[in-house]
Amino acid sequence: MNKTKDSSRRNFIKTLAASTAAVAAGTHVLAAEDKSAHFKILKKHPISVNDNVNIALIGTGGMGTQDTITALTVPGTKLVAVCDLYDGRLQEAKTRWGKDIFTTRSYKEILNRKDVDAVIIATPDHWHQQISIDAMKAGKHVYCEKPMVHSILEGPAVIQAQKETGKIFQVGSQGVSSLGNEKAKELLKQGAIGDLNYAEGFWARHSPTGAWQYPIPADASPANVDWETFISNTTKRPFDATRFFRWRNYLDYGTAMSGDLFVHLFSSLHFITNSFGPNKVYASGGLRYWKDGREVPDVLLGTFDYPQSQAHPAFNLSLRCNFVDGTSGTTYLKLVGSEGSMDVTWESVVVKRNKTIASDDPFYIEQMKKAGTPVSDRKRILPPEEYKFEAEKDYLGGPYDHFVNFFTAIRKGGKVVEDAIFGYRAAAPALLCNDSYNNDTAILWNPEKMQLIKK
Ligand SMILES: NC(=O)c1ccc[n+]([C@@H]2O[C@H](COP(=O)([O-])OP(=O)(O)OC[C@H]3O[C@@H](n4cnc5c(N)ncnc54)[C@H](O)[C@@H]3O)[C@@H](O)[C@H]2O)c1
After folding, report:
1. What's the CA-to-centroid distance between 386 and ligand 1, angstroms?
2. Residue 415 forms part of a structural domain
3. Do 188 and 288 share a domain, yes or no?
4. Which of 217, 260, 277, 391 has the highest local Cβ count within 10 Å?
């Protein structure tokens, strides 16, 4: 591993040396894949008579709508049906995509349709597992929103269904397909920050919608909301519009800050490092401000121990989320190594590297004297400390690339970047983080075997 790393490090330095002009400007352009290549692939491998991948949307809320808009910008896709449990969303879908779109409250009606090749599942988290498995068994390819499952116990059955059916299954942490994540992976491999020893991520929000206090439609009632189906796989309760429209705040349906947000960082981190995940999870936090009846904290801290693996040295991860953050608006993922650090977004990577030790540093001089090495007091030219890699202007973004990855796999029978095993390995530490918080205890996990370890 060391030998490869050393030569990788030389690669990084060589790559930088070869682009002196760009270094001087402080910015590198991320190499974008040729988008026309994707288009050619789509054209070469038609899977249905009309040369489209026909898609249907299950869960026509905020993200499902956004996913579908993105999916439809990929050449060769067509929306044929949508499903939701609130009639208002079905009406909105007809207004947006045309009156010919088939609409239903029942996802099984969608799965029974012969003209549907693939489904996007963007329901609340407690429906992901059941609908994913039913969809694959009905012969549909699946793009399922993150987190892949609602509880740690649900993952293996999705992995099994994907294996048995051979259907393409992609989880929706779209950042992993972005140029920013790809570049970070490449830079880490080249030794840009030395040996990884620490990573951190953070979300800061300070608004009602940021804290999941979404508007509740004025007309919401048992007549236009299928509440009985919504709760049919969980605790029985009388109709409650707040629970239906603000489901993230309740444990029966959502997966709290960790399942909603940390999971994105696990996905990106695992993609960049080729990691299987942590073996120890510990969380703490509290409900500090949004005391609206929610069952989840609004400040959450998670620490995660990553064991040494074939792909990376042992390192620690610290994740934080604050919905009452006075500074607000900050989200980041940072990887720190023995020689520098990387700030990673979907569109950019900023590498900061240690300065070469200056010859006037007293500690350095003392050490050199002790070693009998002459020290020149002439100042040297120091290498640049910061390199910014940025996506080209008009880059279509991670969400687009993630759908291209999905549709290309469908047409070519290839692999996706975020399959069920990857999705489960990203969801597991997020879900265990909640379990740790709720039970006030550290949890041990075998990331390779994807199994809980009894203490
Ligand atoms: N990848 C991302 O960046 C991202 C961002 C936001 C949300 N998400 C994920 O997308 C999913 C949806 O989140 P959202 O913000 O769009 O929520 P939302 O409340 O806006 O939408 C969910 C929709 O699902 C419908 N629904 C509920 N149960 C259903 C069922 N059994 N069958 C059919 N429809 C059902 C609801 O009526 C609602 O319209 C969640 O899993 C969330 O974690 C991902």
Report:
1. 39
2. no
3. yes
4. 277
